[in-house]
Amino acid sequence: MARVFSGIQPTGTKHLGNYIGAIRHYVADQDKGEAFYCVVDLHAISVPYEPAALHENTLDTAATLLAAGLDPARCTLFVQSHVAAHAYGAWLLGSVATMGELNRMTQFKEKSTGRDSVSADLFTYPVLQAADILLYKADRVPVGDDQRQHLELARNIAQRFNSRFGELFPLPEAAIPASGDRVMDLQEPDNKMSTTRGTPQGTVLVVDPPEVVARKIRSAVTDSGREVRRGEGKQGIGNLIEILSVATGEAPEAIEAAYEAKGYGDFKGDVADAVVELLRPIRERYLELRADETELSGILERGRERASQVADATLAEMLDAMGFRVPPRGG
Ligand code: TYM
Known about the structure:
Layout: E1 3-8, H1 16-29, E2 34-39, H2 41-44, H3 51-67, E3 75-79, H4 85-93, H5 99-103, H6 106-112, H7 120-135, E4 140-142, H8 148-165, E5 173-175, H9 210-218, H10 235-248, H11 252-258, H12 264-291, H13 293-321
Parallel strand pairs: 1-2, 2-3, 4-5
Helix pairs in contact: 3-12, 4-7, 4-13, 7-8, 9-12, 10-12
The protein binds ligand 1.
């Protein structure tokens, strides 16, 4: 059976870009094989973070995924740090990854530029990401466009491991959506939407109250023209067209045609209404899940059990292939 795997960081609350580029595809991919979704809290410590908030942020992210439609009966949702094989596997794969390829990672360059001190974890981050994917022998990895290079690296690591130690890993494919793979900041439409590096007003959070969602969209930056069209110099409007297209299921061309005789005001009002309705049920379910931790903890505990079974078995195969002879527990 095919295996689906994806990971999401518990840094900040998840935004519309995460939802459109990744989370809604996690939901669709639950039935494309056995699916594993992981809140990657170990990755979150690669940049400065608040220890007191780590656990709550992890629960927030898990609750957002469930509220968006992940169904624990159809997928395994778990927390990376709960399955020790991830850190262990990353160390093993670090022996086949090279400094040269890690040096070429554009996300490392983006995240390290301008910082006084850069952690070693930020540099080796993609090796842990490769371990996440390979421990589940995943074939399909739903992600947004910004993860393309990390996925390419995970494939290279898998390929090198297989040729050096024997065939163990299938080569994972990045499943990047044809549209909505790169939602832009509403205030700075040349930059992708991001809670850590975007503008607060230009970032719609999945759990923002409806009036906040509407205000952020209505005040989105557009160009000085009037036409609701995509194209050169129209990044702001193009971004909103793409968002509306995802929210309503209408093709971007049909949206352009429908607004031919209308101005930006009507258009932005309609985008705001559509996104409010898209996010409303997710926010409601999220608040329920966060009001009582019992259900959420139970789901993550069952997720930990299933994820550990699979990851521990792969880790044992990796150790064996690499020449280790680890005695069985109690042996
Ligand atoms: P993260 O937590 O930054 O983002 C989670 C997912 O959201 C997508 N995404 C976007 N899509 C469209 N437009 C945007 N503006 C936007 N911003 C983010 C990301 O592409 C991602 O799919 N390194 C990963 C986490 C990770 C992982 C993994 C992913 C760790 N291990 C194994 C896949 C497989 C990350 O930081 O995602």
